[in-house]
Amino acid sequence: MSRVKIYGESLPNIPWQDKPSDFTGPVWRYSKNPITGRNPIPGVARIFNSAVVPYNGGFVGVFRAEQTDGIPHLYVGFSKDGIVWEFEKEKIQFVNEKGEPFMPRYSYDPRLIKIEDTYYIVWCTDFYGPTLGLAKTKDFKHFVRLENPFMPFNRNGVLFPRKINNKFVMLSRPSDNGHTPFGDVFLSESPDLIYWGKHRHVMSKGGQWWQSLKIGSGAAPIETSEGWLLFYHGVVLTCSGYVYSMGACILDTDNPSIVKYRSGSYILTPEEWYEERGFVPNVVFPCAALCDADTGRIAIYYGAADSYVALAFTTVDEIIDFIKANDEATNDDRSIGI
Ligand code: BMA
User: Which Pfam families match (predicted)?
Assistant: First the structure.
């Protein structure tokens, strides 16, 4: 039993390894990382930045797959243990709400969130420039593309896993048309997933250097007795380019644009070969987190160097203690963000 309670489901088969006795950080890597290799399926060069949820006693994922023409699309995969994956051979074939084929020109960085009995995918899609795409499925065979929630340019859309004050709530990161050199996290709410409003500022890039250029939400928030636990990415610009690390914060349960605590130190940064070396070096990019409410175990899926999917672990007690002990939330972070 954990001290901090996770409000969620039991997941006794969550992928898991205990923390190595000589490791001092709050988040530790799976010893057999990465869990995907190069050229994982015909026509696909790399799979990374992808999202996973429990499904039918095992796991299902929506994967960012960079095809051999360089264009990213979304592919479905299934796994018994959350580690060894079988990917569908064909990319997701979306239909619109009339049932007609609807194929985005490109799709990347999916997040997958179950709300009530429906699974939602939020990803970066093309709409006269990058913005958030939204689709739903119940069976991972039929995918209905819904209206884009926001205008361009936007990325890193993450839905909360339940309605808050009877509204759907989405985190997002307004961007520009390229490799955006800025970015704060905002929040918007909707009664119906069509009309979005009541926009709030959640948090800015940080004063700490690892997150000094921009930030973006990562995994769907996990509800705990301390608030919503959010894993996100923070970026620093170095003389060799961007470096992406993983950070964590806790948002207020009823007013999640209020940051209660935010770690001033990263919780994972590129150190292993598969994070430092690849198509884009020095990238750790979280997109999903599984949790087991019974034990407080958490498994985080992250993209490594835009080339692989990797896994890391923590517990709710360990990560919440770390965030609080290293809290550097600003007054602006702690405000409602109007
Ligand atoms: C961001 C996104 C991510 C990518 C990262 C590093 O802008 O495009 O998909 O992992 O850059 O290349």
Answer: Glyco_hydro_130 (PF04041)
Residue 303 CA: nearest ligand 1 atom is 10
For 155-168, the pLDDT digits (tens) are: 999 999 999 999 99
Closest residue CA from atom 12 of ligand 1: 280
Percentage of the chain exceeding pLDDT 70: 100
State the distance from the centre of ligand 1 to the C-alpha of 10, rounded, in angstroms. 32
Atom of ligand 1 at shortest distance to CA of 108? 9
**Rounded mean pLDDT of 294-307?**
98
Token output for 209:
């250097």
Burial 262-298 (b: 16+ CB within 10 A, else e): bbebbbbbbeeebbbebebbbbbbbbbbbbbbebbbb
Please state, in angstroms and rounded to a whole number, the distance separating the CA atoms of residues 13 and 292. Answer: 9
pLDDT digits (tens, 9 = 90+) for 140-155: 999 999 999 999 999 9
Distance (angstroms) between ligand 1 centre and the Cα of 310 equals 15
Which own/partner pairs from 236-239 qualify as long-range (CB within 8 Å, at least 24 positions apart)? 236/209, 236/210, 236/211, 236/212, 237/181, 237/212, 237/213
- CA distance linking residue 156 with residue 174, whole number of Å: 9
- Centroid of ligand 1 to alpha carbon of 115 (angstroms): 26
Q: Does the predicted TM-score (pTM) go above 0.90?
A: yes
Architecture of domain 26-332: 5 Propeller (2.115)
Residue 177 CB less than 6 A away from ligand 1: no
pLDDT of residue 99: 98
Mean pLDDT for the stretch of residues 235-255: 98
- Average of pLDDT values for 199-211? 97
